[in-house]
Amino acid sequence: MTGRHDFWHAFLSLGLILASFQLYAAPKAELWPFWQASNESNHATIDHQPWQTILDRYLLVQGQHHLFDYQNVSASDKHALKQYIRALASLDPRDYRQAEQYAYWVNLYNALTVDEILDHYPIRSITKLGGIFTFGPWDEDQVIVAGKTLTLNDIEHRILRPIWQDPRTHYAVNCASLGCPNLQLNAFTSANQEQLLDQAAKAFIRSPKGVLIQGNRAQLSTIYQWFSDDFGGEKALFEHISQYAPEYRGFTGKIRYDYDWSLNQP
Questions:
Q1: pLDDT along the chain (266 residues), means of 10
Q2: Where's the DUF547 domain (predicted)?
Q3: Cα 66 vs. chain centroid, distance in angstroms?
């Protein structure tokens, strides 16, 4: 009797986890109007050097992956990361130009993700975080900015995606997983973000975890399935891809999707 109870409990838990995954898998871009304001006459810049220092020390290039050396982050650098996040949270990004805001939100998202992993390390996957029946920490409260409590999903799906409507945002935010577009070696700034976005898009599309085509079969990152509308819909997907890999233009073969949730560590 106990064995049967344990089986059904495990079955129910798996079902709830899979349901949570489906909810995560395709969040809609739903604008939070509060964050639309900007001050285009303010040419001040936000200092992201503390984040750059962390990236310089712990982000490693290994084949198609940029791996974060969570295991060896010093106590002082963990503290410095939290100080950087607090510094960003103390600002109101609406006081800055939109270009400055974009870099602010991308860096904040990525710094919060690394901080979340460090707070729970060692773990095998970010999907192990969050509540017992949730798939990852994306709906957990992370930071308060301008009096508003924000989750990672708020930053990505209620601010970045709907305000900028740039599919390259999917190559900029990093979910600490091997299947994700790489955490960039450089912190985003208003000056370098166009270059970084194109660089990140090209690197991902030209890596096997992004696009792998053999004959008339393609294996694509599940990002292209989850957020199909951001890339122009399924029929226009290869138009986006071919901007960075012209040889894939006009592909009409069979497509399967794959994603590796393993932690992006050495």
A1: 47 42 68 98 98 98 98 98 98 98 99 98 96 88 98 98 98 98 98 98 98 97 97 94 96 96 98
A2: 95-205
A3: 13
Contact 193, 61 (CB under 8 A): no
> For 106-115, b where at least 16 C-beta lie within 10 A, e where not — what string?
bbbbbbbbbb
Q: How far apart are CA 145 and CA 186, in angstroms?
A: 24
Structure-block tokens of residue 218: 């393609």
Residues 6+ apart with CB under 8 A from 182: 65, 66, 174, 200, 203, 204, 264
Q: Which amino acid would we find at residue 266?
A: P
pTM: 0.91
CB 231 within 8 A of CB 240: yes
Strands 254-258 and 217-221: parallel
Helices (H), 60-180: 75-89, 98-120, 152-153, 161-164
**196-205 long-range contacts, CB within 8 A, separation 24+:** 196/172, 197/166, 197/168, 197/169, 197/171, 197/172, 198/168, 198/244, 200/168, 200/171, 200/172, 201/168, 201/171, 201/243, 201/244, 202/244, 202/245, 204/171, 205/241, 205/244, 205/245
